Amino acid sequence: MWQDHLTEIIVFTVLFLLVSGMGFVAARWRAPKDMAHLDEWGLGGRNFGGWITWFLVGGDLYTAYTFVAVPALLFGAGAAGFFAVPYTIVIYPMVFLVLVRLWSVSHRHGFVTPADFVRTRFDSPILALLVAITGIVATMPYIALQLVGIEAVLKTMGVTGESTLARHLPIIVAFAILAAYTYQSGLRAPALIAFVKDSLIYVVILVAVLYLPYKLGGWGAIFDAADAKFQASPNPNDGILLNTNNQLQYVTLAFGSALALFLYPHSVTGILASRNRDVIKRNMSALPAYSLLLGLIALLGYMAIAAGVKPLPGSKPGSVDSNTVVPILFDQQFPDWFAGVAYAAIGIGALVPAAIMSIAAANLFTRNIYKEYLKRDATPAQEANVSKITSLVVKVGAVACIVFLDPQFSIDLQLIGGVIILQTLPAVALGLYTRWFHRTALIAGWAAGMGLGMWMLYQIPNAATGRAHFGGSAFPLRDFGFDTSKTIYVGIVAVLVNLVVAVLGTLLLRLVRVPDGGDGTTEDDYVADEGDPRVTTVDPGGSTAGSKGGAAAGGRDADAAPEPVI
């Protein structure tokens, strides 16, 4: 009953409302003279320095769902859940040089989305439309999953009822508040809130990894308890170590997830909001600190085993909600006031990525669907207004996913989202380095990879939920005719087929001399930096102009004191 968690509810509510107030105040933080421009509302003026970018990108990539799902996966399956740790490490050196090229060409031409870049690079509105739709579809379930994290906390505190409305009303209220301050403040809201969110998360996790092992008898006792549980599991893939059956799935899932991470439009949004190339380089060097935190968070799953945590019942009779493992662990092992702080950290941790994701999806619709196909002469103010409205629609859709669908199905949708977004890799990531691919071949490759990926996902059942199709992302190799019980991540297979089709298609189309359009970028565009006369900036009135070291984006004085960087 909620009366037993009154202190936790009060602490959670006070911190949640405090952060929400910061979201509204953010509209006046580093505010330009005019917010009626996507560069200002959707990208924060493209002027965030090192510290802001670090908190913003970190808060965007390490979501509330991460803080409940990764430990829950270790709690249920063991070592396989650690895939989230290496993939968030290997990606940073991989994109160290890639993202600075995207920043430069985007600032030079005023690009707001990855699809903007593809449109100009390959002179193909169709390819840009596919990239935009892909980004929106892949992002929607990701936003919905932030609600899963909040719901796990609310369920643990006993504030969700039995009926559909009572169960989801607190989430609806929370996202209504989020929608309001995102509409008003744009990207500045999650950027400001990220400071509080990340600080709370660091404090909670560091206290947990120091205090809980002491209380539970030490790390040896924790690992022994986890090993005993997995030894008794009927699933041969469960264990504190990987085995021959799940090693291939682990490696391909980690690598595929790494490739997908910065293809998501919300990841790109945080990068394009940076002030200059050095900010991005410093952040790619420093962001692995979050991966250290993620490794500590993952170990909470083993601590929950040692503490004897029992997950709360799921939405279906006889099922369990494994996402409640961490909230219950804090509820059982810590004083009520500290558990309330931990719950607030998870709840606030949902607001930052949900806001950025909705803004990114809205920008894709505005720039690559509305402006391209519905109103070509849209003014900057009209673009900003359409993005604001679209961001509200996106949040409503995310809430609908939780209200009307089994939350476990939303989790499966997120796995599908990773497969989907990977199909933009040839056009976006490789396109930053080469114009060799033919635009028609890239479209064919996208279709081949998407088609194969959807077929493979359709074949995968989920025994835990009883779903016959779209039950995960681990495809059994025996379905390809191999005599093995090993599985492989669908996204890797699909994107490899995508690349093969794009390469062969390009060779064929070049052979028959099919026109390929023009390239709207030059090699110099990919090395432009802050203060470079080639960089497009925004003046206070919302127009764009080349900068020669004058006013910074959004009309701020270029001689103002620089923001501290990492």
Describe the structure.
The chain is mainly alpha-helical and 566 residues long. It has one domain (2-425): Sodium/glucose cotransporter. It contains 23 helices and six strands. Strands 1-2 form a two-stranded antiparallel ribbon. A hairpin with a 6-residue loop joins strand 1 and strand 2. Helix 1 runs antiparallel to helix 10 (188-216), helix 8 packs antiparallel against helix 18 (336-374) and helix 8 (125-156) crosses helix 19 (380-404). The longest helix is centred in the middle third of the chain and has 39 residues, at 336-374.
Shape designation:
globular
Assembly type of the chains comes to single chain
Distance between the termini: 45 Å
Mean pLDDT: 85
CATH architecture: Up-down Bundle
**What fraction of the residues are assigned to beta strands by DSSP?**
under 5%
In short:
The protein has 566 residues and is an all-alpha fold.
Produce the secondary structure layout.
Layout: H1 6-25, H2 38-41, H3 50-61, H4 64-77, H5 84-95, H6 98-109, H7 114-122, H8 125-156, H9 164-185, H10 188-216, H11 219-231, H12 247-261, H13 265-272, H14 277-286, H15 288-298, H16 300-306, E1 312-313, E2 320-321, H17 325-333, H18 336-374, H19 380-404, H20 407-422, H21 425-428, H22 439-458, E3 474-476, E4 487-489, H23 490-511, E5 536-538, E6 544-546
Antiparallel strand pairs: 1-2, 3-4, 5-6
